[in-house]
Hints:
The protein is α+β, with helices and mostly antiparallel strands. It has a single domain, classed as Arc Repressor Mutant, subunit A (Orthogonal Bundle), CATH 1.10.10. The chain is 64% helix and 15% strand. The protein has helices spanning 3-10, 13-24, 29-33, 40-52, 71-91; strands at 27-28, 56-61, 64-69. It has a three-stranded antiparallel sheet with strand order 1-3-2. A hairpin with a 2-residue loop joins strand 2 and strand 3. Helix 1 (3-10) runs antiparallel to helix 4. The chain is elongated. The model has no long low-confidence stretch (mean pLDDT 90). This is Transcriptional regulator. Keywords: DNA-binding, Transcription, Transcription regulation.
Amino acid sequence: MSFNEAFKALSDQTRRQILTLLKEKDLTAGEIASHFDMKKPSVSHHLKILKHADLISDERDGQHIYYSLNTTVFQDVTKWFFHFLNKEEDEK
């Protein structure tokens, strides 16, 4: 997992909204697209970036591909933030 890729993916509001949707439950690309006023290829582009950053994973179930959060990456990023904040506190 690259922190650069994760931060790049998180920098976009649409991708953060997709992650919020996936927090509730696994969804197909079509279900995700129904929450946005954009074409499906644009949603697919956002999903590709999130997947490349390992923030989401996908699993095929018959003809459908379901997307879900990869909470491990969120845990790694959170650990980094806490480590960063604690280091600043130690330096005071």
